[in-house]
Design a protein that fits this description.
The complex is a heterodimer. By secondary structure, chain A is an alpha/beta fold. Chain A has helices at 2-18, 23-26, 78-92, 109-118, 135-140, 151-154, 156-169, 195-200, 215-224, 273-287, 302-306, 321-329, 345-348, 362-374, 376-384, 432-442, 459-477, 483-496, 499-517, and strands at 41-42, 62-71, 97-105, 125-128, 171-172, 175-176, 178-180, 188-194, 229-231, 246-247, 256-257, 310-317, 333-337, 342-343, 352-355, 391-395, 398-401, 424-425, 444-445. In chain A, helix 3 links the parallel strand 2 and strand 3 (97-105). In chain A, helix 17 packs antiparallel against helix 18 (483-496). The longest helix of chain A is centred in the C-terminal third of the chain and has 19 residues, at 459-477. Chain A is globular, with a radius of gyration of 25 Å. The termini of chain A are far apart. Chain B is mainly α. Chain B has one domain (33-323): MetI-like (MetI-like fold), CATH 1.10.3720.10. Chain B is 72% helix and 0% strand. Chain B contains 14 helices and no strands. Classes of the chains: A alpha/beta, B mainly alpha. At the A-B interface, helix 1, helix 2, helix 4, helix 5 and helix 17 of A face helix 1, helix 2, helix 6, helix 10 and helix 11 of B.
C-alpha cells in the first residue's frame, strides 16, 4: 500500500511540474471566453431547387454562421435582431443560414481574437484590420481563408462595388485574405467636442490649429464643469495619435516614417523632438487635471463618453464623424480637423471582414457577406436594428431613433460592409456620401501604401520591446509619467532589447519593396 | 572472497524474493480493492488527457510556429524561441519577481493558515468557528476579475475608498496605480486574503484528525495548552506542510495572471514591481501571436520547477525519509 501511495504521489508531482506546458496560450484567464456557440450543421427541410445566382456550393443544409466583431460592446437587443435577420434570410434569400453576432468592446477584442485564433476555435467570420485583430499577422499565420478564387464566384457584386483601390490595397503579396468595408479611403486626425457644452460657455474654436490651442477651453471645463474630463486619453484613445506617423509594421515596437513621404528613412518615433513635445503637452494637461487622473487604468473609454463625462477626444475623422459620434454616444458633438487627410495602409486595410480558416463553411460565409454588402434591407437591419423598435423612418433613407433605440445601436457603420447603402440619421448631412467621395479625392497617398512588414526575422527583439512599450510609452500617452525621464529610459531599454536591429530590418525591407515596385 | 559471493547471492535472492512479493502484493492489492481502483480511473483518464497529452506540445518550443494550420510541419529553430526570455535586462526583473513573490507566498502560506487553523480549533464556540471559517473562505471563490475591481474600488485615485479616507483626514491622495513602491505589499496582501481561507481548511482538517489520546495523555502529564500546541499539534502538521510546500515549489516559476496582470490593471509604471515570467510572456504573445515563444517559456518554467522539486525533495529525504514524495 505504501509503495502504491508513493508511486501515485510521484505521478502527481511529475504531472504538476510538467503540466501547463502550453501555459502561454491557455493561461489568460478570460481567454477561454463563453463560447458555447459552436458552429452546428444540422439537416433541415429540403431546399427549393433554385440556384439562380449560379453558386456552386450545396446550400441544402442549414448552417449557423458565427461572426465576431469589434464595437461598443454587446447590444442588449442583439438576440431580437438576430431573430429578425434570420427570419429575413429565410424568407427572402436562398442562403439557408442563421447568424450569430458576437461583439466585444474595443479593448477586449484584439486579445480575445488572438487567443481564439491561436487555439484553433471554430468560427466563420471575424473583423480584422491593421489596428485590431492584426490582419497581416493573422493572415501570415494562415488564420484566414485566401479569397482570390472564391470572390469572383461567391461575391462578384462586392468586388465590383469595392473597386481596385480597396481590393488591391488590401492584398498581401497579391492575396486577398479579407473583404474591406466600402467606406472612406483616407484618414484625418482631429477632435470631437461636446457641442452643447461648448455652446454653453460660448467657445469659439475657429483659431484652433493644434491640440495646444485647446488649452484655454480645457481650463474653462476644468473650472466650470465639475465631474467632466476635458480631454479623453483612456483605453488607447490617446491624443498621441495626432502625430500621425506612418507606422511600419504593428504597434508597440519602434520604427516609423513621416507620413508626408519626404524621405523613406525609418526612425524610432520616441527619438523625434516632436514626440517629446507632444508627450510634454500631454503631461502638462494631465498635471493640470484636464486628463482623468487614472486614465491609464481605464480600458473602456466609451463608458465615460456615454455618461456625458467627456468633453473632447482625439478621433480619426471623416465627413460626418461628428453626427456618427452623436448618434452612437447619445450626446451632440462637433469635429475639428487637425491633421491633413492621408490615404495609407491604415484605411485600405482599416476595416475588413475575414473568413476563418476554421470555418466549416467558408463559401456559405462569403455568400452571406455578399448579400450583406449588397442588400440594403439586410445591411441596415444589422446596422440599425428593427424598424419601429430601434429606429423609425423619417423618409426613404433617413431615420430617427425608435422607442427602444438605445437597446440596439452598434454605431459602427464603417465596419458593416457597405456604408453607401446605409440609412442616414435625421441629424446627418444628406450629402454625407457625396462628401465622402470628395474627401477620398482630395486626400494624398503615402508612398508606403501596400507595403507589408514581415516581423519574422526580428521576432525575438519585438517580443522584448512589447513589454517596454507597455511600461513607458502607454503611460506617457496619457501623461501619467514624466516624459523627460520616461522617453530617455524607454529609448535606453528599447535599444538594449534590440530596437536598432528592428529599425534596420524595417529599413531593409522597405527599401527592397520600394525598389521592386518602382 | 567466498563469503562475499555468498552475501551477494543472498542479496540477489532476497531482491528476487522482494520483487516477487511486490508483484504479488500489487496483484493482491488490486484484487482486494478493485472497486477503489475503478474509482481512481476517471481521475486518471482526465489527468492523462489534460496533463500528459499536451506534452506533445513541447516540440512547439523548438519549432518555428509560423502557421496555425501546420503545427507539426514547420522548421526546427533550436533555442531561438528562448532567446527573448534572456535577451535584455528585463530577464533579471521577471525572474527576481517570480521567485521572490513565490517564496513570500510559500512562507505566508504556511504561517497564516497554520495559526488560523489552530486558533479555529481552539475556539470553544464551535458555531462562531464555523462562521469565521466561512468568512475566510469566501475570497477563494471570487475570480481575479472580480478581485481586480474590488482592488480598484479601494485604490482608484479619484473614487477609491482609501483615497477618500485619506482626504477626509486631511492627507494627500496617493496615486496607487502609478506608484510601484506600494505594489509588492498590495500583491502579497491580496494574495494572502484570497488563499488563506482555503489553506486554513486544509490544515484544519489535519488538526482535527490528530489523535485525541495524545492531548489527553499530555494533559494528564500537566502540559499547558500552549505546550500541547507546540509539542503535539505543530509536529503533527509538518508532513502535510512539507507536501504542500513541495507542490508549491513545483510551481515556483509560475505566477497567477489574474494577480499580476488583472489586479494591477496592466499599468505601465507598475511593471517593475509586477512583471513576472507569465505576464512578460503574455504581453509578447498577444503582440506577436507566436505560439513557439509561449511554449518556450512554458517549457523553461516546467524544467526549472522540476529541478526545484527534486532538489527540495532530496533535502527532505535526507532528514525525514517518510515525508519525501519520491
Amino acid at each position: 500500500m505504501k509503495l502504491m501511495k508513493k508511486g501515485l504521489v510521484a505521478f502527481l508531482g511529475t504531472a504538476c511540474a510538467l503540466s501547463m506546458v502550453l501555459s502561454g496560450c491557455t493561461k489568460p484567464a478570460d481567454a477561454t471566453a463563453s463560447n458555447g456557440d459552436k458552429v452546428t450543421t444540422e439537416e433541415t427541410k429540403a431546399p427549393e431547387a433554385s440556384s439562380e445566382s449560379g453558386s456552386k456550393v450545396d446550400t441544402s443544409k442549414a448552417v449557423e454562421l458565427t461572426w465576431y466583431f469589434i464595437g461598443n460592446g454587446p447590444q442588449e437587443d442583439v438576440a431580437k435582431v438576430e431573430e429578425a435577420v434570420n427570419k429575413y434570410i429565410a424568407e427572402n434569400t436562398d442562403l439557408n443560414c442563421t447568424i450569430k453576432l458576437n461583439c466585444y468592446d474595443w479593448g477586449t477584442y484584439p486579445d480575445k481574437m488572438q487567443a481564439m485564433i491561436a487555439a484553433g476555435e471554430k468560427f466563420d467570420i471575424c473583423f480584422t484590420a491593421n489596428w485590431a485583430n492584426n490582419y497581416f499577422q493573422q493572415s501570415a499565420k494562415g488564420a484566414f481563408v485566401p479569397l482570390n478564387d472564391l470572390l469572383p464566384v461567391y461575391a462578384p457584386k462586392t468586388m465590383e462595388l469595392l473597386g481596385d483601390d480597396f481590393i488591391k490595397g488590401s492584398q498581401i503579396q497579391g492575396v486577398n485574405y479579407a473583404i474591406p468595408a466600402n467606406k472612406e479611403k483616407a484618414h484625418q486626425w482631429g477632435l470631437v467636442i461636446r457641442k452643447d457644452i461648448a455652446e454653453k460657455h460660448n467657445m469659439d474654436f475657429s483659431n484652433v490649429k493644434t491640440l495646444a490651442d485647446m488649452e484655454p477651453f480645457f481650463q474653462i471645463i476644468k473650472e466650470k464643469e465639475k465631474g467632466m474630463y476635458a480631454l479623453e486619453a483612456a483605453g488607447g484613445e490617446s491624443p498621441f495619435r495626432l502625430m500621425d506617423f506612418d507606422r511600419i509594421g504593428d504597434e508597440k515596437y519602434p520604427g516609423v516614417v513621416w507620413n508626408d513621404s519626404k524621405d523613406m528613412k525609418v526612425f524610432n518615433e520616441l527619438e523625434a523632438p516632436e514626440t517629446m513635445e507632444m508627450f510634454k503637452l500631454l503631461r502638462k494637461f494631465y498635471q493640470a487635471g484636464y486628463i482623468r487622473e487614472d486614465a491609464a487604468t481605464v480600458t473602456d473609454y466609451t463608458a465615460d463618453q456615454k455618461a456625458g463625462k467627456m468633453f473632447a477626444a482625439v478621433r480619426s475623422l471623416k465627413p460626418g464623424k461628428d453626427a456618427e459620434e452623436s448618434n452612437a454616444m447619445g450626446h451632440p458633438y462637433i469635429q475639428i480637423e487637425l491633421t491633413p487627410a492621408v490615404i495609407s495602409n491604415r484605411e485600405t486595410t482599416g476595416s475588413m471582414q475575414a473568413i476563418s480558416a476554421t470555418s466549416p463553411n467558408p463559401e456559405r460565409a462569403l455568400m452571406f457577406l455578399e448579400a450583406f454588402n449588397t442588400d440594403p434591407v439586410l445591411n441596415n437591419l444589422i446596422n440599425f436594428g428593427i424598424e419601429g423598435t430601434h429606429y423609425e423612418k423619417v423618409s426613404d433613407n433617413v431615420i430617427k431613433a425608435g422607442p427602444s433605440g438605445a437597446k440596439y445601436n452598434p454605431g459602427t457603420g464603417w465596419m458593416f460592409g457597405n456604408q453607401f447603402i446605409n440609412y442616414l440619421w435625421d441629424n446627418e448631412d444628406p450629402n454625407k456620401w457625396e462628401n465622402f467621395k470628395k474627401f477620398n479625392d482630395n486626400a494624398t497617398g503615402t508612398k508606403t501604401l501596400g507595403f507589408v512588414f514581415d516581423p519574422e526575422p526580428v521576432k525575438t527583439e519585438i517580443a522584448q520591446c512589447v513589454n517596454i512599450w507597455d511600461q513607458y510609452v502607454l503611460p506617457m500617452e496619457s501623461g501619467t509619467i514624466d516624459p523627460e525621464k520616461g522617453v530617455q529610459e524607454a529609448i535606453k531599454a528599447l535599444n538594449a532589447a534590440g530596437a536598432e536591429k528592428i529599425l534596420a530590418e524595417k529599413q531593409k525591407q522597405l527599401e527592397a519593396w520600394l525598389a521592386a515596385t518602382k | 572472497m567466498n563469503s562475499q559471493t555468498k552475501t551477494n547471492q543472498v542479496v540477489t535472492a532476497n531482491k528476487a524474493n522482494m520483487k516477487a512479493n511486490k508483484k504479488e502484493g500489487f496483484k493482491h492489492e488490486f484484487n482486494k480493492n478493485a472497486a477503489l481502483f475503478l474509482m481512481l480511473l476517471p481521475g486518471l483518464i482526465v489527468m492523462l488527457i489534460n496533463n500528459y497529452l499536451p506534452m506533445f506540445g513541447l516540440v512547439f518550443a523548438f519549432r518555428k510556429m509560423d502557421n496555425y494550420r501546420n503545427l507539426f510541419g514547420t522548421a526546427w529553430v533550436g533555442l531561438k524561441n528562448f532567446e527573448y526570455l534572456f535577451g535584455s535586462n528585463t530577464a533579471w526583473v521577471i525572474t527576481r519577481n517570480t521567485i521572490g513573490y513565490n517564496l513570500v507566498f510559500i512562507i505566508i502560506g504556511i504561517v497564516f493558515p497554520v495559526v488560523m487553523a489552530i486558533g479555529l480549533n481552539e475556539l470553544r464556540n464551535k458555531r462562531a468557528g464555523k462562521l469565521y471559517q466561512s468568512l475566510f473562505f469566501i475570497p477563494y471563490f471570487l475570480s481575479w476579475v472580480v478581485i481586480s475591481y474590488l482592488t480598484m474600488g479601494l485604490l482608484s485615485s479619484e473614487f477609491g475608498v482609501i483615497n477618500r479616507l485619506l482626504e477626509s483626514v486631511g492627507k494627500e491622495r496617493i496615486a496607487w496605480y502609478t506608484s510601484p513602491e506600494y505594489w509588492p505589499y498590495i500583491i502579497v496582501l491580496v494574495n494572502t486574503w484570497k488563499w488563506t481561507g482555503y489553506d486554513t481548511i486544509v490544515y484544519l482538517a489535519s488538526v482535527v484528525g490528530i489523535n485525541k489520546e495524545l492531548f489527553e495523555a499530555a494533559a494528564v502529564d500537566g502540559a499547558s495548552r500552549m505546550q500541547q500546541i507546540w509539542y503535539i499539534t505543530i509536529p503533527s502538521l509538518i508532513p502535510l506542510a512539507i507536501v504542500l510546500v513541495l507542490i508549491r515549489l513545483g510551481r515556483m516559476f509560475y505566477t497567477d495572471m489574474g494577480l499580476f496582470y488583472s489586479v494591477p490593471r496592466n499599468m505601465g509604471p507598475l511593471i517593475n514591481a509586477t512583471n513576472t515570467i507569465d505576464t512578460y510572456v503574455y504581453r509578447a504573445f498577444v503582440q506577436t501571436g507566436d505560439v513557439g515563444l509561449a511554449s518556450a517559456a512554458g517549457f523553461y518554467q516546467a524544467v526549472l520547477g522540476l529541478v526545484v522539486i527534486l532538489t527540495f525533495n532530496a533535502i527532505v529525504r535526507k532528514y525525514d525519509k517518510d515525508s519525501a514524495i519520491i
